């Protein structure tokens, strides 16, 4: 579509000119209508976490219902009244089911969005926070996201050599004539750091300000472009025209009427008869033309936009007919350079196992050149245009998709095909975009990312995340944050399930052994309220591991409760239950009431300590306490509440506890600490080995 030259489109703006237009499509058959149709037909996918949590919840609920029915049967078989047995079974179900899980997931995701907003990424959909952590492919727009969205002069071909702007010499008359052409034959201006006018012309003025002698350092100019223009007034002009691809102005240079011309090289070079080297002007030979065209091809192959410059000394009236018999000065190449942080961000993405793909409306040569500079396009990669993509079947695209690093001159339909192809490979895809034509692909992607500065309202509405700085590096930061959010949610789930499992094992042991119930209903509810919610929330505030981006993206189809995770939960839950059962059996030597109090206290304190174990897979000695004060505050609050229940007589009856001796309190503390010591010891040994 970008190569059509004889079409106008609905909703586009006409800046100037007149035309008689044949209407070829209306309504939903127009290009904008096709985009609306794509938006309506595109369905959003559920996030990997949503799928995992649904599976996890159904399995957990089934298991707990079966267990509670078993406990109810055992209690009735032992002769306990139906109402009491039912009340205990229900209380156990309440304690076993992590009711706080959904709220914890939401709060952790909300805290993640707050952190991302501070890093220039606004999350519109909470579920997108976790999805970012699973992203394995980022399809990124080029202009403004990977690049700076401003034209910059790169190289200058003049006098048969290639120079940087800083290498131009004011004492060289040829260089001075180029600067005259650059500044005087130019309608742009720079004012207080702002560029007014065409970006290509603004870049030429910035080039002028870099020349030694013009640039005096510390932001001072020896001769500003406005002063030069005032000194050498524009006498006549022929404005730039897209048909003839030239612009000309006339000035008095050293009292000699001089016409300066700039434009496309294929047009301007045909109008040149001479070439200048230093102070010498000589006829332009065929070899000179070949050298100039060869240099132009070299610039173009590296993704540079080229302008040619020429002049002639003539007093004739300036018109399109006088733009001939020119003296060639040189070529100036420009490009929209990559953002400095883009190269590092793409490298970080690669290290994190994320494939970055460039999708742009630019020509293939330009796109590939930029992609090489950034590190997206490497040896063995492919680049496809929209037309080449249209020629591929879905099966052929699936075979090539992992080799294609650059897509150029693409349509909205092409972008959706690219997203679909990656998703068929079970990848979680992030797509960036800023235009109306990007909206269907943004909606189709697992994480659509719109540009906050240059983006249209339609693209922002379709996206899950908006970048307020239009910077690719911000996406990588958001991915790291998303991985941290998922890891924290998983750690919180591990904490909840291992703690709940310890209570279940203790109750099951007492029921099978024919012992009194180790907890009463109100104690289970206190455990559920205090030692479930608060530590899990503190775990959700963990800042994350520094090496989070050195890991590969997780498999979106992998179960939340994989074998290593289930083993970890079971082991830790079993260790805590051993301490609780030991405390219960010791207390039984005095009375069932004392046993119940000791079991309740040991379980509560052990789970408060267990919150430190679940903060990370690393030991507490490695992660420390300073980076998560919430865990310390939660531990202090939970311990204070437990102390109030144990040592304030007015609360004994409410929570069905008995006064404990000093020796029994110390036994509770020691037994509660043992599981945490063992778990931390294992982590330290693992770290020393690894």
Summarize the structure.
The chain is of the alpha/beta class and 690 residues long. The protein has 25 helices and 21 strands.
Keywords, separated by commas or semicolons:
alpha/beta, Calcium-transporting ATPase, transmembrane domain, Rossmann fold, Calcium-transporting ATPase, cytoplasmic domain N, 9-stranded mixed beta sheet
List the helices and strands and how they pair.
Elements: H1 31-41, H2 48-77, H3 82-96, H4 100-118, E1 121-123, H5 127-134, E2 137-141, E3 152-158, E4 161-163, H6 173-184, E5 189-191, E6 194-196, H7 199-209, E7 215-217, E8 220-221, H8 225-231, E9 236-241, E10 246-253, E11 256-263, H9 265-268, E12 272-277, E13 280-283, H10 286-301, E14 305-313, E15 326-335, H11 340-351, E16 355-360, H12 364-374, E17 382-385, H13 386-390, H14 394-400, E18 404-408, H15 412-424, E19 429-433, H16 439-444, E20 447-451, H17 457-462, E21 465-467, H18 472-513, H19 521-540, H20 563-588, H21 592-613, H22 620-623, H23 629-647, H24 649-655, H25 662-689
Parallel strand pairs: 2-16, 2-19, 12-15, 16-18, 17-18, 19-20, 20-21
Antiparallel strand pairs: 1-21, 3-4, 3-15, 5-6, 7-8, 9-10, 10-11, 11-14, 12-13, 14-15
Helix pairs in contact: 2-3, 2-18, 3-19, 4-18, 4-19, 5-18, 11-18, 18-19, 18-20, 18-21, 19-21, 19-23, 20-21, 20-25, 21-23, 21-25, 23-24
Global shape: elongated
CATH class wording of the largest domain = Mainly Alpha
What is the CATH homology-level superfamily of the largest domain? Calcium-transporting ATPase, transmembrane domain
- Give the biggest sheet: 9 strands, mixed
CATH topology call of the largest domain: Calcium-transporting ATPase, transmembrane domain
Low-confidence stretches: none
State the end-to-end CA separation.
55 Å
Oligomer: single chain
Count of individual beta strands: 21
**Helix-residue proportion:** 40-55%
Strand content: 15-25%
User: How many alpha or pi helices?
Assistant: 25
> Based on helices, strands and strand pairing, what is the structural class?
alpha/beta
CATH architecture of the largest domain: Up-down Bundle
Q: What gyration radius follows from the Cα positions, in whole Å?
A: 36 Å
Mean pLDDT: 89
Tell me the number of structural domains: 3
Domain P-type ATPase A: 4-39
Subcellular location: Membrane
Main location: membrane
Protein name: E1-E2 ATPase
